[in-house]
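User: Structure please.
Assistant: Input sequence and predicted structure:
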Amino acid sequence: MNNLLYARLAKTNLSKNRQNILPYLLSCIGTVVMFFIMDTLAQGSGFDSMIGKDTILTVMGMGTYIIGLFAVIFLIYSNSFLAKRRKKEFGLFQILGMEKKHLAKVLFFESLYLWILSVGGGILLGILCYKLLFLVLLKLTRFQGTIHFAFNWKATGNTVVLFAVIFLINYLKSLHQIHAAQPIELLHGEQEGEREPK
């Protein structure tokens, strides 16, 4: 089986499981939007003519770290829930003859597609929402400032890297679940109760 076949199979899987995948994808996009906008604001975009610029940037920088930490915890937990819902599907693939290494490649392409859609869609939506949120910020702080958006490459790079790391962690966790379990266990995995969080 070549990589193109794995890529097509991953695309088909995502399409067939859209009822489970779509809420996860939307939550990923929403988290990307929040992080991208906060990091763009933290880079100083739009605050040049404002009094108290340094204080605002410090607060925005702290906000970026908080949202980044929230993104890591929230998306890893969400992915664990999604993986549990799909255990039966993975078990069925193995019973039908697909080896674990083949399943790992399908999972890789699924993760890649979800990462591209999440980061691409989140950054585009973040650019569209930036001016609106900047207006809200000006109203809340009662500062006088001009609204302008300069595409910030540093914020974009930070967003791409952070969510690449999150999706890589989720991919490795999914691989561990598949390799540690037998096909029969995966078939009944959806019926398992929730474990107490650490």
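The mean pLDDT is 79.
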